Amino acid sequence: MNILHLVQSFDISGRSKVIYDLSYSLEKDGFRFLVASLTSNVRYAFCQNGLRCVNLDKKEGFDISVIWKLIRIIKDEKISLIHTHGKGALLYGVFAKKLSRVKGLVHTVHRADGDLLSENRLVKQLIASFVDKVIAVSDSARLKFTETHNFPLSKTITIYNGIDISKYERNQPIDSGLCELRSKARLIIGTVANLSYDKDLETLLLAFSEVVKIYPDSLLIVAGDGPKANELKRFAEKLGVSEKVKFLGFRNDVPGILQILDIFVLSTRTEGLGIALLEAMAAKVPVVASAVEGVKEVVEDGVSGKLFTYGNPQELKDSIISLLKDKKLCDTFMENGYRRVKNNFSLEKMSGGYERIYSQLIRKKIMHIVLNFDIGGLENLVFEMARMQSKRNEVIVCSLEPEVSSRKIEVDGFKVVYLNRKPGRDFRLLFELHNLLRHERPDIVHTHNIVPLVYGALARFFIKIPVLINTRHGQEDMRKPGFFWNAYDFIITISHSAKDRLLANNKIEPKKIRVIHNGIDISRFNGFKEAGSPVPVEKNGRLVVGTVTRLDHYKDIPNLISGFEKVFNYFGDAELWIIGDGPMKKELEEFVFSKGLGEKVIFWGWQKDIASIDKEMDVFVLPSVTEGISIALLEAMACGRPIVATRVGGNPEIVIDGETGFLVSPKEPDKMAEAIIKVLSDREMAKKMGEAGRRRVEEEFSLERMVREYEKLYKVT
C-alpha cells in the first residue's frame, strides 16, 4: 500500500517528526511512504534516514504545475492514498485527488487554529467533498477544524501524537558539551522549540531573568532554530541574562538534552499537542507549560505537571520556583507524567490509529478461490482467513465446484460464490470464472492449491487481475509448466520444506516465493485441561490415542491402526479415536475389524467442535506420509496435547522433538507405537510436552500472525 505524505516544507518541527516516526513505524507492516514537499526547503533529517522525499518546487502563489506533478507521482508510484499536512498541502491534495484515481485523501490537523485555509465557501465545499477523513492531534484542534470549515464532525477523529518512549530512557548517550554545561550549573531549565512567534519564548526569557536573581547558579537552555533566533538572542542581552542562556540551535540529540534538565518549560501561545512536551514527560523531566488548548489535553495541572496562564512571565516564574523548592512535587510530576505518556501518547498507539484509518479508506476486494468446500484443514483455514480479513476488506470466497449439501457453510462477514466445475478439463468453467472476475473486479485474487492455480493463471490471460497470489497448502508433487507459475505475482508455501521442494521441481524466480505458516484461532482452545489430568466419565477407556484427519492415502491411517494394536497390547484399556471423513473410511473400518479392534477403534466422522474432542485425548498422533502445516496438529497442541507425528513435510517445523512431542519415521508402526507408549507411561512428561506445545502455537502459529503476514504481502502488491 503506497501512501504519499504531502507537506508544505521539510521544516524543523514536531509535525515533521510525527511524519517520520509514523512512516518508519508503519513501513514494518507493509506500508510504503513517499514525502512530497511543496517547497524545496529540505532541512529535516528524515530525508537522510531512508524515507524517500521529493521537492515539488512550488512557485509563489497558486502553482497549477504542482497539481500535474502530483498526478504524475501518483501514477508512477501507484499511490493509493494522499495524506496532507498543513493547510497549503490540503488544497493541492484536494485537486490531486479530484483529477487522479487515488482511493483516499486524509488530512492531519497539527495546529490549534484548525488549519483555516480560506473563508471562501467554494473552497470549504471542495474540502468537505474530497477529504475522506480529517485526523486532529487534539480534541480542541478537531473542533476548531469542523467549525472553521463547516466540515462534518462524523468524518473527523482525534489521534494523539505519539513518541517512541524507549528513546527517552535515562541511559541515552550525552554529548560532552552538554555534560560540561551540567557540571557548571546547579539548576538547568530548558525548552525544545521552533523559535517562532507561536512559541512565545519572550515570556520564558522574562520569567528566567527573575528566576536567576533567586538562583544565580541556574542556566537556561534553548534547543531549536527558527525565524526569531537572532531577535531572541538580542532580547536575552537586553535582559542581562545572555551569559545564563545557551541557544543550542537545531539539535538531533533531544533525549540527551532532556537528561540534563531539572525543569522543562513550554511557554507557547498556541499548540496542537506538543511533541517536545511529550518527550520531556517521557524522559521523566517535570514540566511547566502554558494552559492553552492542546497542552491541557496532555498535562493534568497539579498531577503530571504545572500549567500557567500563557503570556504571564510572573506566573511562569512562580511556577518554576515552586518546583525548584519542592523535590517531592517534582518526583510526583516525573512519575505521573511518564505514565501518562506511556498510556496515552505512545508511538504504537498513534501508529495503530493511523493504520486503522488507512486500512478503512483503502479497503481491498480480495477473492479467495478454492476447489471446493470439502472437509479438511485447508477449507477451514480459508474461512478463518476470510472472516478476519473481512473486518478491513471486502472478501469473496469462490468454490470452483458446486455446493455440497452435506456440509453447511457458516458465512460471517464475507460472500460465498459457487461455480459448476465438471470432472476433467472443464473449459466452460474458465468462461464462468471470467464472468465472475469481470463482475466483481477484485484487487487481489488468491488461489489455493493446484486446480485453482491453473484456472487463475488461465483467467489472467483473458482478463486483467491486478494481483494474483497462490498458496500451496500441501507437500505433494508440485510440477507444473512454467506458464502457470509465471502468471503469478507471489507463490506462498506454508513450510520451508515445501518451498525447497517447489524450487527443486519448477523453474520459479525465488523472490516470488514466500513462506507463511498456517495459523489457528487460539481463543477457541482456551481453558484446556492439562495433559494427563483425569478424564470425564464419558470416555469408555482411561487412555485415548486420537487423530483428526481426512481419511485418504496421504494420511496413512493403516499405519496408525497397526501401531495402536501394539499400544493396546500394552495398555488393555486404551482406545483409538479417529475423527474425520474421506474416501478410505469404509476400507479402514474393514481393516480395523480384520485386526479384532472393532470395539477399541472409534470412527467419529466429521465433527464441528474439534476442540472439545481434542481435550479428551491423552496423546494426539499424526501418521501422514506427506504434510504441509497441519491445522489438526496445531489445534491439538493448542489444547495442550502431547504429540506423536511423522518426520515429514512441515511437521518438524511445528513439533520440537523431545520437547513438544516425538517425531518418528513414516510407515514404521513399531516406532510410532514406542513413542505413544512412552508418552502414555509418563504423565509428568506428557504434561510438560502439552504445555510447551501450547506456548509454541501461541508464539508462532496464531491465526492473527498468519493473517498479519498475508496483509503485509497484500499491502506490498
Give a description of the structure:
The chain is elongated, with a radius of gyration of 32 Å. Helices cover 41% and strands 17% of the residues. The strands form 4 sheets. A 7-stranded parallel β-sheet has the order 3-2-1-4-5-6-7, sandwiched between helices. Helix 8 links the parallel strand 9 (218-223) and strand 10 (245-249). The N and C termini lie close together (7 Å). With 717 residues, the protein is α/β, with parallel strands linked by helices.
> Which structural class is indicated by helix and strand composition?
alpha/beta
Query: Would you identify the regions where 5 or more consecutive residues have pLDDT less than 50?
Result: 528-537
The coarse silhouette is elongated
Please give the alpha-carbon distance between the first and last residues: 7 Å
Described by strand count, sense and barrel closure, the largest sheet is:
7 strands, parallel
- Report mean pLDDT, rounded to a whole number: 87
Radius of gyration, in Å, reads 32 Å
Helix proportion range: 40-55%
Strand fraction band?
Answer: 15-25%
Count the DSSP helices: 26
Which sequence of strands runs across the widest sheet?
3-2-1-4-5-6-7
**Overall strand count:** 26
List keywords for this structure.
717 residues; alpha/beta; seven-stranded parallel beta sheet
List the helices and strands and how they pair.
Blueprint: E1 2-7, H1 14-27, E2 32-37, E3 52-55, H2 64-76, E4 81-85, H3 87-99, E5 104-109, H4 121-130, E6 133-136, H5 139-149, E7 156-158, H6 176-184, E8 187-192, H7 201-214, E9 218-223, H8 229-239, E10 245-249, H9 254-259, E11 263-266, H10 275-282, E12 287-290, E13 306-308, H11 313-324, H12 327-344, H13 347-361, E14 365-370, H14 377-389, E15 394-399, E16 415-418, H15 427-440, E17 444-448, H16 450-462, E18 467-472, H17 482-486, E19 490-493, H18 496-505, E20 513-515, E21 543-548, H19 557-570, E22 574-579, H20 585-594, E23 601-605, H21 610-614, E24 619-622, H22 631-638, E25 643-646, H23 651-654, E26 661-664, H24 669-681, H25 683-700, H26 703-716
Parallel strand pairs: 1-2, 1-4, 2-3, 4-5, 5-6, 6-7, 8-9, 8-11, 9-10, 11-12, 12-13, 14-15, 14-17, 15-16, 17-18, 18-19, 19-20, 21-22, 21-24, 22-23, 24-25, 25-26
Helix pairs in contact: 1-13, 2-3, 3-4, 7-8, 7-11, 14-26, 15-16, 19-24
